[in-house]
User: What shape does this take?
Amino acid sequence: MALSRNLWQHFNPNRAPSHLQTSVMVWDKHKLMIDLHVHIAVSSIPRTPGLPVGEALRFAALNGYRAVGLILRSSELDMPPLMPLAKDIKRLSLHANIEAVLGVELVHIPPALLPEAVDNAREAGAGLVLAHGETLLENVEEGTNFAAIMAGVDILAHPGLIDEQAAVCAAERGVALELSCAPRHAFANAHIIRMAEQFGCVLVPGSSAAAHGEILPPRLRDRLYRGAGLTGEAAILLQHNARKILQKQLVC
Assistant: This one.
């Protein structure tokens, strides 16, 4: 789903943000805050956990976010056409003072079938494709992290204790690793940060929010990330990595 042009100055890679001139992370209510992983539920796709689209946009905006990834969970290989939903999201976001990109999170898909699922999600119209990574508190099949990276997802969500092979592959293929602020997924954040620093992986923010209270205020989210060891320029780059992913959806 395309982003409108009114935030082009925020996304212009040739424009150096002034707050990158310091290595100290200072919360700034005027900076562009992004959450790439907010779950939505829609009537056309039953049994999908999450917030109604309008509520997701409203509460994200109220909490200071300027752009969000609205994510549908899917445990199936085939996806219904998503373009009608993408058009609805675009209209709603224009009046909610927040940008939005429609995406799909592939959940508990057998690793061998992830390439097919990724292709089907993109053909259906998903702007972002995430895979449900090997988070610690769920019995995600071993090998999902590596298979999702090889399948070409945009973001590996909450990858848990990601190993060196998968981290190297993610860095080489440009697959972003999600740094989750969801309590159930955040236990391995310090490990994910260390692996990203060691192997050059891209980190992006995500909440896996499926209720109003799970969309954290930016100040609280930044403190959670700092507690896991993300400080200085690395913390600032977290937002800029998210911007680069959203740039792919920008139509000039």
About this structure: Residues 1-30 have pLDDT under 50 and may be disordered. The beta strands are 34-39, 67-74, 99-106, 128-132, 155-157, 176-180, 203-206. Residues 105 and 130 are 4 Å apart (CA to CA). The first helix runs from residue 8 to 11.
